[in-house]
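Homework help board

Subject: predicted structure for assignment chain

Our instructor gave us this sequence and asked us to write out the predicted structure in token form, then describe one feature. I got the tokens but I'm not sure how to describe them. Can anyone check?
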Amino acid sequence: MNRRLAEAVVDAFRGESAQALRDRFENFHEQDWSRSVNWLHTSGLALYFLCRARELGIADVMPPRILCDLETAHHENHARTEAMFDEFVKVNVAFQRAKLSYANLKGFSLVPRSCPDPSYRYQHDLDFLVSPWDAERCRHAVEGLGYQLHREYEGSWEFVAGTPEVLSMRDLYRTRTERSLEIHFVSAREQIESDAYGDRLLRLQLQVWNGFEFPALSECDKLLGQAQHLFRHLQGEWTRAAWMLEFSKAIRSYEGDAAFWKDTVALLDEMPQRRVGAGVASLIASRAFGAMLPGPFSSATVGQLPRTVRLWADCYQEDVVFATHPGSKLYLLLQEVLSQDDDQERTRRRKKLFPLHLPPRVPMAPQESDIRMRLKGVLAQARFTWERLYFHVASGLRYKIESARWKKLVAHLQG
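My token output:
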């Protein structure tokens, strides 16, 4: 990846003038774009950048081949988004017929504040928040649409339908034969701790997009939900820069809305355990994409961050924004300052540093497929296993080097 080109792409969303951006981009050659194209796609910024370049009238700064590839990707993603919206409507109708207490999460509910046009957004599944009392009825409704339960994790169910495919980067935006959706249940902790305001399902609103009405989270819950989603990924190997962009767009969309920010801060007072997550996500996203945090919200989130957490953001925010897939293990440094430093936590971090188990299996072609498709699946699994091994060794070594530096920085801060 060409770092200077990546920085120019990010700056295109920060309000820099079209002429200034044109002058910067004209310094790059086709080779620079070719080296950076994987980062553009895996970061989720590729189609957003195409849209922004068109708005500014500078799309011609891209080499013709790169521009053509992005336009083809947008055409494919447009068709894919339409197919996903059709599925979105079917699932919502099934849930409404089953009389479930539920809300749509992320995805189409982020339109228009975070994403004016979903055809520029990379989305691979549908997410729903459901009352735990409706779990079985929800399962029957989903299975009635042809889905099967794939796995259960942390109070969530993941369902899949259709035929698994062996995919590559070329297939990133294409309509897929396999569909997936996730059901997230309101936790007992949320129900107990939200005394004054109730849980998120008691605060939902009806939203309309593309002529279809559906239940979504309240505006305050959406923003805080984006922050928590971003914070969860910051505690993992890979964080998509597009999530930061979408969060910063949402923040900008409420500029000058004092009532909204007052309600959001009041909601945070009800759920103080979310302050750190909201603070870290807000700090990194606003710095990366130039959103201005309102004073009361900044004081309630960024202003409440522990000094060591703030130090981590100061040191590694650019590593997160400009990381190439599959990321790094620098998140372990953040987890160290967020968790209790006991034997159990240290053991857990060691396992994440270099896991002693095989990586998950990539989607494989059905047994009845021809030998060429099955061989393609075997090769994809071997390639993925090698890539994960290389990642663990290379990123583990970097973590060890940074860990020594980090301890000195923390000691200096606390000294």
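Reply (TA_rk): Your tokens look well-formed. For the description, you could write something like this. The radius of gyration is 22 Å. That's the kind of observation they're looking for.
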